[in-house]
Amino acid sequence: GEHPLFPQSRSRRAEQRHGHAGGAELVLAKESMAASSREQILISRVLHKIDTEKLTHVKEVFMEKENALTSKDFVDLLLPTVRSMEGGEEQVVAALQLVHETIGQGVKGEEEKEVKEVEEEDDLMNPAFMTEAQVEEETQKLLSWEVFAKLLLQEGVVANVVAGFNLTQVLSVIDLEKITPLQAIFEKKGNVDLESFVVIMKGQFQQVFELIALFELYEEERKIISQLINLFDAIDVDCNGSMTWEEFTAFLVDQGMAEDVPQQYNIIRFSQSPLKDGNGHQSHCEKVIYLKGYDKVAFVEQGSRCLKLCSPDMKPYFEIRDFTQTPLCAEYIEKYNWVAVSCSDKYLSFFDVDNSLKLVRRVQSKTAQRVLCWSEAAEVLFSADHEGRILSWSLHKVKFGPFDDKTGEEKKEPTWRDFMKDAIFKRDPPMRHISVEAPREASSSRRKGKGKKDAWGRNEDDLGMWESDDYGDSPMHGISLELQAMDRGKKTKAKVKPRYRGENIVMQLLELPVLQQIASCGVDGNVMTWDAFTGMWKRTLRGHEMGVRCMAFATSTKVLVTGGYDYNLFVWNPYVGKSIHTIHGHSAPIVGIEVLGASSNQVVSADSEGFVKTWDLGTYQMIQSFVVDEITILRAFVSIPSSKRVIAVDREFVAFDYQNTGIADQTEEEPLIKVFYNERLKVFVSGTINVVKIWDAVTGAIKVVITHKDAEITDFCFDDRGRKLFVSDHLGKIHVYHSSTGCLVKKLTSHNKEVSGMIYCQGDKNIITVSWDRSIVVHDESSKTEVVHRRATNSHKGDITCVAYSRHLGLIATGSTDCVIAVREYLKLRILSYLLGHKTDVTALAFVEPYPLLVSADFGGNVAVWAVPTITGKEHRFANKVLTRFINMQSLESSASVNCLDLCPINDDEHSFVLYTGDEDGEVRSWDLSALLPAAGVQKCPPIPASEWDPYKRVENDASHTAETVARKASSIEVPELQAQMEQPLVRQGFSWKAHSDSLRTLKVYRNPPCVVTAGFDGMAKIWTREGKLMTVLRAYGQSTWDFPVEATDPCVPLETQNWLLEKVHEASDEKPADAKESLTNGYQKGPQSVRS
Predict the structure, then answer these.
(1) Concatenated DSSP letters for 21-75?
(2) Residues 6+ apart with CB under 8 A from 561
(3) Is the bond leading into 1009 cis (omega within 30 degrees of zero)?
(4) pTM score above 0.70
(5) Fewer Cβ within 10 Å of end Cβ, the chain: N or C?
(6) Is 560 helix (H, G, I), strand (E, B) or coil?
(7) For helices 218-235 and 206-215, angle between their N-to-C axes, nearest 10 degrees
């Protein structure tokens, strides 16, 4: 796709001409393309500055003008709608005129093509009717709304407003003048239902819906309607189908308070330092450099001939005044303990830190060196100038002096060439930051004869590398060929002075230590990499639309981050020279980029308007953003890793300190209790003894943090909608939190001791809890007060350690420290059977739906499969007995306790039985038990009929009379340990892998996407494929990239509900429903008028 403002008639024809152009024509053609690119950027900027709230009025004026605006009318109409823009009103007017002119050219090109086709067909041309100039003038001065609207859509001006519209965030900062009428509407209606809520909210955001109608963005309308439905569900946490004004405002307040909570769990948290600048600046600072290794900040003030040094706490340290002109840059050379300073008078000076910064040597170079970079790997000082020339200085020669090869003595009057690193300086082609597209002119001719110099001032006698062929596609390849061609000629042309344009200016040099390379960036918008030892060109990184001003290299992930005048951050893979990602977020030129820490995966960037932002290079999410209010224009931005501080610079230094929280690539610093994935909401939930976090499965970022302070958390789970989070603790209490805001909603009936297990009953609004007080309780979670439907006390002799529930079978199973498994009927909590055979504590249980089977594990590493009683189906011949068993062996001599287990989801048409186990050694193993089903003759059970399902039945029972007897029997020698009824081997071990460095706590297997989620005492939550390949890990920051195959496209709202609400909204807006054809075109496929389930 070509850009709508620059069609083929303009850009592609130019490209075709380039193939036939040569010499000056090629240069002019490329300069034209560069100018075209600048025009495109200017047009894009002015279009994104248009106030979208005024577009409805703009369309009305178009229609009043018969849908044809001249350039003057277009500018007069759009000028009041454009927000403040760099360059003032004159720049805005010029940009709008350029928009009108460019669109007119595009329209003119299409019209000329149509006219030409008519001429060819009819061969009728009447030049007397209208001249070509008149046709061109007429087409250029008229512009229709349809063409302008298409341009706005293609530029993303409207889509950015509509697609990025987040209702919850907008409502959290709603204007005060809108609160009173909104409150009046709510109070007039009393309790607001879903339909009324959507209609009310549409009225509040009429401008967004007008844009949708104006540009026919019907899919975006569906997404916003889905947002409203989800928002209503989030507020209506009790699912009573209505809300009050108090509930609405309370949710907004709580949501606003919870927005910043997840940020505290990321690595970087900036706060303004209490330290004040003590340097007393006379004017603003032109250049600021942190001297790594010396731990000092060097800076140059405007018009000053002095280089000042200060400590990291911004206290004056030293001033170097031994200069005749303004210093341009400084660099600390740790090996020699020197400070190198370049000045505008072309001198490069070296000062000895150990000798009170006394001058060691001063060398005059050919040009003023704008930037310096010391390569620790190659032990070479690199410098670059405004002509793109990159020089390599040998510090050995600087210290001891250059020697004459013939006499062996130090040269008395050495030039700057004598201090170059020979292996790099004598290389052909030399290091030069010139784009491949730039004109390659010979800067001087090489003449034959002893002692003659080449274009870069090198002795021809020393150029033993001229015939080298390893420069390949270097940008200097063409220049080298021209110079060699001139050497071969008998006659040479007069020496031509090169023309250097501003695009050759090098803005920064940076060492890539892991790659042993040097990177250069410049005004030409390119980034070039060079071998630090040989100076050989490696590759050119292209992508920036304007000049590149700053760079930073993340050693941990080996990526290069660049930024400049196009406001964007580019993340590069320097190994292959490709851009990995483009980060948008700044609205001004980027002044500085810093990586905070060698092992960090986060960078901080600052722009000229004073906005500072931190980014996670794993998820490319913005972590924090703040503005430096104390300065007018941010001119420099440096990081001081030793003090964990950054300094923003204008006329004064403003310092910000940052703190590291957590551990890189680790979910938590404490052991994890549990981790699970919610397929409907696309979120992960993890928890420790005092914090539960909800993670976005699409981005891997933390969404909500819920802190539980009453006691240590023991278990947690979601309700069926994911709106409530139930948290149980060591004191036996059960709290209900709002999953979006983290606020406490209510409490359920408490146990007397620690709650050891909790399961939500999907579809019943019930929740099962078991405790060390040996009771089983079925709570009604939908009630605003504490309601218990059923309770069984003294269900075991020992503490209950685990619980399993099957809605399909209608059963509850509990395991205990008394080695007994009790199977109960869910609807009555009536005991059906006791399963005896374990000789150590039962650690995990799981039903095998839809089969009447139960899998159990114990502390000794035993795993058993039981046939359990059924309520609807035929009872198995081995009911209440072990069908088969196996041992989770740690080695040939010992076993490992199984702490958690889960079954691979079984489809209706499948007859598979795959079990996953996690043990105390951090191992995950899969076991294929599919052969057991036909061998034991196990059949699927039908579900309990809906007519017999009464989940709200009230029951109270006490099993103390049988619990003690059963426990005594389980520990007797009369009961053998897990005696299997099936003698043939039916278990086959599948995949196994070391998942954690410590004991596993939980393990869950999921169908969509197919994965295994594990959590352990090592504080890690990991997501694996079913074959044991690591997919990603939950972490707030680090080197691990987030790679979980889900997308955020599904609004989680049924299509029928969307259609019903859209129809109601249109009726409330007095819109006529579209006919069947329009419905299909607009995406409004009519369905049943069903409310949300």
Answers:
(1) --THHHHHHHHHHHHHHHHHHHHHHHHHTB-GGGHHHHHHHHHHTTT-B-HHHHH
(2) 551, 552, 553, 554, 569, 570, 571, 572, 593, 595, 603, 605, 617
(3) yes
(4) no
(5) N
(6) strand
(7) 150
Percent of the residues in the chain that have a pLDDT greater than 90, as a whole number:
44
pLDDT, tens digit (0-9, with 9 covering 90-100), for 920-954: 999 999 999 989 999 999 888 999 888 889 999 99
For the chain, the straight-line distance linking the first and the last C-alpha, in angstroms and rounded, comes to: 44
Q: What angle do CA 332, 291, 396 make, to 5 degrees?
A: 10
- At residue 503, φ and ψ (nearest 5 deg) are -70, -10
Neighbouring C-beta atoms of residue 852, cutoff 10 Å:
27
DSSP-assigned letter for residue 754: -
Here the tokens at position 685 are 């939930």
CA 347 to chain centre: 45
- Residue 114 exposed, middle or buried by CB count within 10 Å (0-12, 13-18, 19+): exposed
Model confidence pLDDT, tens digit, residues 1044-1056 = 998 766 556 667 7
Q: Supply 418's token pair.
A: 């004598």
Q: Tokens for 248, please give them.
A: 């609405």
With beta carbons less than 8 A apart as the criterion, state whether 835 and 821 touch. yes
- Phi-psi region for residue 499, left (φ > 0), alpha (ψ -120 to 50) or beta? beta
Given this model, what pLDDT does residue 31 score?
55
User: In this structure, what DSSP letter does residue 533 have?
Assistant: T
The torsion of the CA quartet 124, 126, 129, 135, rounded to 10 degrees, works out to 80
Residues in the chain: 1093
- Spell 173-199 as b/e; 16+ CB within 10 A means b: eeeeeeeeebeeebeeeeebebbbbbb
pLDDT range class, residue 127, cuts 50, 70, 90 = very low
SS3 state at 657: strand
Sign of the alpha-carbon torsion through 867, 869, 871, 872: positive
Question: Both tokens of residue 693?
Answer: 């976090």
Give every CB contact of residue 501 below 8 A, 6+ residues apart in sequence. none
CB atoms within 10 A of CB 376: 14
> What type of residue is 149?
A
pLDDT digits (tens, 9 = 90+) for 493-519: 444 444 456 678 999 999 998 888 999
1079 residue type, one letter = S
Helix, strand, coil share (%) of the chain residues, nearest 5: 25, 30, 45
d(CA 1083, CA 1067): 17
Angle at 994 between CA 990 and CA 995, to 5 degrees: 105
Q: Which helix (H) or strand (E) holds 1021?
A: strand 1021-1024
C-beta of residue 303 within 8 angstroms of C-beta of residue 686: no
pLDDT in tens, 40-89: 777 877 887 887 778 878 888 888 888 888 888 888 888 888 876 666 77
